[in-house]
Design a protein that fits this description.
The chain is an alpha/beta fold. The protein is built from 22 helices and 21 strands. The strands form 3 sheets. Strands 10, 11, 12, 13, 14, 15, 16, 19, 20 and 21 form a 10-stranded mixed β-sheet that branches. Strand 11, helix 16 and strand 12 form a beta-alpha-beta unit. Helix 1 runs antiparallel to helix 2 and helix 7 packs antiparallel against helix 8. The longest helix is centred in the last third of the chain and has 18 residues. The chain is globular, with a radius of gyration of 28 Å. The two termini are 39 Å apart.
């Protein structure tokens, strides 16, 4: 950072004497941007473009400057302009992909024809091989807005062995209140299945049975209408609702999964379809499921359109109850194939609501806040915590002052220390985030520990009661993370994703607008996640002691939060992302762009240590569906996963604890 400040100062002196050189202004703009002066850099890039409008590098730099200021739309426009000037600009393309704007890439090509063109390009020049390889990979990914094109080009073949291995499959179709045309579509999709040994019971009203749709039971002997309770079954049962249209290989996939895994419950992905008599079906709003997560499936809007249970399961007409009851009996398999489509429009996803009747806090909470000469932010952090708590008198605050030297900092610490249950711990050692938090945690007997950055501001009322209720309702929870927003209002953190190609752990929803809900509303919904950021990380003190605290030796600066979450998952604990806990995080949006080469080298070394310790646990995320793009920005496109990846996913999902991880052997 200091080197870039010096460079910016030097180039600034040059441009004052050579005012009309676009090349010199471009170097000046680059230096300003890398020194963290994004506003000044934006002005300099505009000067370059005024002198030479066709400078692609200036548009790319301007986009990065906008990105640092949280101006998402302006940044995307700048990157697009750079690509229009120079279609081979990898930096502009990569910025768009990293920013979650795949659909904005000019003349974006995707699909089988695009893949063929990209493969042909490999023959042009060995020097261009790496570039074309990336083009091939990107050509197979469809932007999120092009789901219908992806769906129509995606070919779902049968599973290995055509799904053989099970006896006759029982199918239950709930057609109560259904329109005859929707039941007709469901039954016709059954008749064309590649797996023929099935028997369907349709629960319906007498009016529906006496309508023309009832004649299908006379034409097709495998279809039976009933008006009362289902017949008792001891084998596998596929549950459908009228209006669910199955892929021709759906029964084969369910049969193969049951035979391969012996699961108690299996479910697939689905989408929504609209049918036109002349032009056929159009597809939208895919629901691409995670590995089984009871928090996720507590929302009826994302319940699978088709799922298989072993034997009768209690639950009545509530599909959520049926899923929970079936999952409690044994293992659960997820088939990452879009095997079903619901007729009619898509649904709107609803954010997780604050629970009613939060009682008085019955457990103590200690908040650990490391700080160094950050008095203005620290004061706001502490004040917001106390102001938004239901029971501030039960909140213990431990401030770890790491060699603070400024007079205003010491004055603030003196004021804060006057409050009961607030203590200042002097930490006179070189910076080590893990050790600072460990030292503080030893000073409290509180039941819940909250590790918190000093550059945060609590926005949610009842945050303390909400944390306490989490462990009162589910003692399997290992840690809880929050929804973090930038000061501009954009999202900084909505959980962490592991395992994307070529990248380390990534914050979900980063740089998105605060009103963006994400796929299936996931950024606004309570759910299990692979990890959460240490900027807000709450966990029971008992568990913290059990795992030995943060790893002081290996993760002094970064990835200590990821390592902690992996160690909790190793114990079979759940990591929760709770969007009802909302804070502003005053971390710079451009923090990553301001890293020096030494800082990047350190970061990479700690990431390597994480991988050497955890191996495949760093490369697999049970909450990230294989249909989503695995490179660039999370969820920014759809891909067709290869068969081996699908089979591997099914087998892993049906393991006894698919969210549990193990250290590298």
């Amino acid at each position: 950072m200091r080197d870039w400040l010096l460079a910016a100062d030097a180039w600034g002196r040059v441009v004052r004497t050579v005012r009309r050189s676009s090349r010199i202004w471009l170097q000046y703009a680059h230096a300003l941007r890398r020194s963290g002066q994004s506003v000044e850099a934006g002005d300099a890039y505009r000067r370059v473009l005024a002198l030479k409008p066709g400078t692609a590098a200036a548009w790319t730099g301007l986009g990065i400057a906008f990105k640092a200021q949280g101006q998402r739309s302006a940044a995307i426009d700048a990157f697009v302009q750079a690509l229009r000037i120079d279609p081979l600009s990898r930096s502009a393309r990569e910025e768009l992909l990293r920013y979650g704007a795949r659909g904005a890439v000019p003349e974006a090509a995707h699909g089988r024809a695009a893949i063929a063109d990209a493969l042909a390009g490999l023959r042009l020049s060995l020097d261009q091989a790496n570039i074309w390889r990336d083009e091939v990979e990107q050509a197979g990914i469809f932007p999120a807005l092009d789901y219908d094109a992806f769906r129509k080009q995606s070919i779902i073949g049968p599973p290995p062995g055509e799904g053989a291995g099970l006896d006759c499959l029982s199918i239950r179709i709930d057609a109560r209140g259904a329109a005859p045309a929707r039941l007709r579509a469901t039954l016709r999709s059954l008749i064309v299945q590649s797996r023929w040994n099935w028997r369907a019971e349709v629960l319906s009203s007498s009016d529906l049975r006496e309508s023309p749709i009832g004649s299908m039971a006379h034409v097709e002997p495998r279809i039976h209408f009933i008006d009362a309770a289902w017949a008792d079954e001891s084998g596998y049962i596929l549950h459908l609702e009228a209006g669910t249209v199955l892929n021709p290989h759906a029964l084969a996939w369910f049969g193969w999964t049951a035979g391969e895994t012996g699961c108690s419950l299996a479910y697939c992905d689905h989408d929504h379809m609209a049918q036109d008599w002349k032009y056929g079906a159009s597809y939208s709003a895919p629901v691409l499921q995670p590995v089984y997560d009871p928090y996720w499936f507590d929302d009826a809007l994302v319940c699978p359109a088709a799922f298989l249970t072993f034997g009768d399961v209690p639950g009545g007409g509530d599909r959520r109850t049926v899923l929970r009851s079936a999952a409690a009996r044994g293992t659960v398999a997820h088939i990452p194939r879009i095997l079903a489509s619901n007729m009619g429009g898509s649904v709107s996803f609803v954010a997780s609501a604050m629970p009613e009747g939060l009682g008085a806090a019955a457990r103590s909470i200690a908040v650990v806040i490391p700080t160094r000469d950050n008095p203005a932010l620290l004061e706001r952090c502490v004040a917001s915590l106390l102001a938004k708590a239901d029971n501030p008198q039960q909140i213990e605050i431990l401030i770890v002052s790491n060699r603070s030297a400024h007079a205003e900092t010491h004055a603030l610490l003196g004021q804060l220390a006057k409050r009961p249950l607030t203590r200042i711990l002097n930490f006179d050692e070189p910076f080590n985030w893990s050790r600072a938090n460990n030292v503080a945690a030893q000073e409290t007997n509180a039941e819940i520990l909250l590790f918190l950055n000093d550059d945060t501001e609590m926005l949610s009322s009842h945050w303390d009661s909400l944390l306490i209720a989490t462990w009162e309702n589910d003692d399997k929870v290992g840690a809880v993370g929050a929804r973090l927003l930038y000061p501009s209002g954009g999202v900084q953190h909505a959980g962490i994703i592991l395992g994307l190609d070529g990248d380390g752990p990534q914050h979900e929803a980063r740089w998105q607008n605060a009103d963006e809900c994400g796929p299936h509303g996931r950024w606004l919904r309570l759910r299990t996640t692979s990890a959460v950021t240490g900027a807000f990380l709450a966990m029971p003190r008992q568990l913290f002691v059990q795992v030995g605290g943060f790893n002081e030796l290996d993760f002094a600066i970064a990835y200590n939060d990821i390592d902690m979450c992996l160690r909790l998952r190793e114990l079979g604990r759940v990591i929760l992302y709770d969007p009802r806990l909302i804070l502003t995080h005053y971390e710079s949006v451009s923090r990553g762009a301001n890293l020096t080469s030494q800082m990047l080298e350190w970061d990479q070394s700690e990431l390597h240590t994480l991988y050497m310790g955890w191996g495949d646990a760093c490369l697999r995320d049970p909450g990230y569906n294989p249909h989503f793009a695995t490179g660039g920005y999370p969820f920014d496109g759809y891909r067709d996963p290869p068969l081996e990846e699908i089979l591997r996913h099914v087998r892993h999902s049906a393991s006894p604890e698919p969210w549990r991880v193990a250290r590298r052997s």
